[in-house]
Amino acid sequence: MDFGFGLNPSSAIELDKQDLSLYDKLCRIEPTAATCIACGSCSATCTAAGYSGMSVRKLLIGLQRGRSQEVEQMLSHCMLCGKCTMVCPRGINTRRVILTVCRLYDNAEGML
Ligand code: SF4
Ligand code: SF4
Fold first, then answer.
1. Phi/psi of residue 97, each to 5°?
2. Does any ligand 2 atom lie closer than 6 A to the CB of residue 25?
3. Ranges of each domain in the chain
4. Summary mean pLDDT of the chain
5. Residue 5 C-alpha to ligand 2 middle, in angstroms?
C-alpha cells in the first residue's frame, strides 16, 4: 500500500531479522521487564545517565530491537546504585533486571 511516504532506510528496524533471544530470555527470568511503559523515570533519576547515556528504558528498548552491542556498552556504566528501582511506577526491580542482563551477556560470551 502506498501511503505517499516511507521510512528512511537507516531508521527502519526489521524485527524479523533481529536476534531478540536476549530479550526473550530476560522476560522469562524477570517477567516484570515486559511491563515497562518507557516512562523514563529511571533515566531521569539515574546516577550515570548524565555523563554516560545509561538508561534502563533505553536498555530495554535496545533489547527489544536486538541492539545487543549498544546495550552491552551501556551496562558498563551502571553503578548498581538502585535509584532507578525506587522510582519505577511499574514496580520493576530494575537493578535486578540489569544484573540479569549482565549474566545473560556473560553466559552468551561463555558459549562463543
Ligand atoms: S521507570 Fe520503570 S516503567 Fe519507567 S521506563 Fe524505567 S523501567 Fe520502564
Ligand atoms: S542502578 Fe544503574 S541504571 Fe539504575 S540508577 Fe543506578 S546507575 Fe542508573
1. -60, -45
2. no
3. 19-111
4. 90
5. 39
